[in-house]
Amino acid sequence: MVSWCGHGIGVAVADIDEGRRSFLSRIAALLGTVAVFEAGWIGATFLGRRRSRASSVEGRGTRIAGPVERFEAGSVTAFREGHFYLVRLEDGGFLALHRKCTHLGCTVPWIADEQRFTCPCHASAFDIRGDVLSAPATRALELFAVRIDNGMVIVDTDKLIRRAAFESDQVTRV
Length: 174
Known about the structure:
Blueprint lengths: L1 E3 L4 E3 L1 H42 L7 E6 L7 E5 L4 E5 L5 E5 L11 E2 L4 E3 L6 E2 L5 E3 L8 E7 L2 E10 L13
Antiparallel strand pairs: 1-2, 3-12, 4-5, 5-6, 6-11, 7-8, 8-9, 9-10, 11-12
């Protein structure tokens, strides 16, 4: 027995140790539960973001780009929301090129002065039709389907069209 605070209250040392151990065990269990909950939350958030990134191209639907006459021959118009460039070729046909490099997925800007898309990450270059001009990319830029409906250019961003190179049947004609 140990005298407690000089008031004559006797408490066994074992009782003090047992109470402290019980308290610390409960705190450890609570902290462990919180840690498991946080790990699950972080994991769900991370996987949710990865899933939405992986399908970020799919599910966006169709985009009405505008009337055919809005796009001049030989022009490239960026559509940020749809992640594509609408290209009007010199012959008047349309292509909707995905903005991601086929090498590692970097966003490729259109350089009007050079008449090419140039990847800022690894210097792959693509012509106005999306064909590879310089490596390391080995495939042409991917496409979205384009259709002309009542004089309006409509791009279907639900599905990417993977291709090796440009072919004339990929062009939507007016």
